[in-house]
């Protein structure tokens, strides 16, 4: 689990993965589903424990991470692959350089992303997913706080990655991705959670947490990575926005008005699983008691585990205010 590449991702369970591994070990053996796989670290944890895993997420870039690092059992990028991706452009494309000129990264970094994509377009399968994952990891590392809601350097915290080129960060990221590849049976898919219909001993559910204020729109925060994973093909760019955002995608889990019904439907959808493991935060609009009651509608027994957690990087005052209790409910 320590080998899994870390990415600054809203709601990531990287720090909680060891504790979740203990929970999974207490449950019936058999295949598992990570229905909202996000950064992929929990699906990877399930795979590392010996379970067959299905990782699902609605975002392309997170599903690509799962394809490269969870579903992939033995493929790696070679030095020759990396040299080719880092070589001059195959076709002179400049979509990223022209679309994001003056935003996020220097012109040389944008040119590298265009050039890298010209070679990645010739890759297939796990190698393609690995290369795109490394590109996304590099871009997330160089963007302060890892989100693409701002275009200025005001959050520059002095990390060395902010001084490195994206090509240098890409090469480092390839090494981390290659090192994380482990044998085992796993699959990755990109789609709506209610289209997942697989038998499972364990269904792990980590839906977006409906906040009291603001929102949990992952597309708003990670639109550049979502576009980068697809070269913006099939994506709707909001050209009128300064940040070149992608159109928002509705999810009923993100609103305190629609979340209770959506969660009730979710727990019913996975009623055939031997056990449900549900993650949720105490700083959400839905209380732990409400969530426990919803799970209890579909399970004979519900155990609540409370873990102290902080959904932020850093030690600044805002980060400290984001300290919360992570609820882990186990429904049998």
From TrEMBL:
GO terms for biological process: DNA restriction-modification system; methylation. It holds the Pfam family MethyltransfD12. Its EC number is 2.1.1.72. One of its GO terms (molecular function) is site-specific DNA-methyltransferase (adenine-specific) activity. The keyword Methyltransferase applies. Keywords: Methyltransferase, S-adenosyl-L-methionine, Transferase. The keyword S-adenosyl-L-methionine applies. It catalyses: a 2'-deoxyadenosine in DNA + S-adenosyl-L-methionine = an N(6)-methyl-2'-deoxyadenosine in DNA + S-adenosyl-L-homocysteine + H(+). It comes from the Bacteria. Belongs to the N(4)/N(6)-methyltransferase family. This is site-specific DNA-methyltransferase (adenine-specific).
């Amino acid at each position: 689990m320590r080998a899994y590449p870390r990415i600054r991702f809203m709601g990531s369970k990287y720090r909680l993965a060891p504790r979740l591994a203990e929970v999974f070990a207490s449950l019936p053996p058999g295949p598992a589903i990570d229905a909202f796989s996000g950064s992929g670290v929990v699906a990877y944890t399930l795979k590392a424990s010996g379970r067959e895993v299905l990782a699902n997420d609605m975002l392309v870039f997170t599903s690509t991470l799962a394809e490269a690092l969870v579903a992939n059992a033995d493929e790696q990028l070679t030095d020759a692959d990396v040299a080719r991706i880092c070589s001059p452009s195959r076709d002179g494309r400049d979509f990223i350089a022209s679309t994001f000129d003056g935003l996020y990264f220097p012109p040389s970094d944008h040119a590298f992303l265009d050039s890298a994509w010209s070679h990645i377009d010739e890759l297939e399968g796990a190698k393609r997913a690995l290369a795109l994952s490394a590109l996304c990891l590099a871009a997330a590392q160089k963007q302060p706080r890892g989100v693409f809601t701002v275009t200025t350097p005001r959050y520059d915290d002095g990390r060395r990655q902010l001084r490195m080129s994206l090509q240098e960060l890409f090469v480092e990221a390839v090494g981390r991705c290659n090192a994380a590849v482990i044998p085992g049976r796993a699959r990755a898919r990109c789609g709506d959670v209610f289209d997942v219909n697989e038998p499972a001993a364990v269904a792990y559910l980590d839906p977006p947490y409906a906040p009291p204020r603001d929102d949990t729109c992952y597309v708003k925060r990670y639109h550049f990575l979502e576009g980068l994973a697809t070269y913006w093909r099939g994506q709707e760019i909001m050209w009128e926005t300064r940040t070149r955002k992608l159109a928002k995608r509705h999810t009923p889990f993100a609103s305190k008005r629609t979340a209770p019904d959506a969660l009730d439907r979710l727990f019913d959808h996975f009623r055939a699983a031997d056990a449900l493991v549900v993650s949720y935060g105490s700083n959400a609009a839905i209380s732990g008691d409400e969530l426990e009651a919803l799970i209890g509608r579909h399970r004979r027994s519900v155990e609540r585990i409370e873990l102290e957690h902080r959904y932020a990087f850093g030690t600044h005052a805002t980060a400290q205010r984001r300290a919360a209790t992570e609820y882990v409910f186990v429904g049998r």
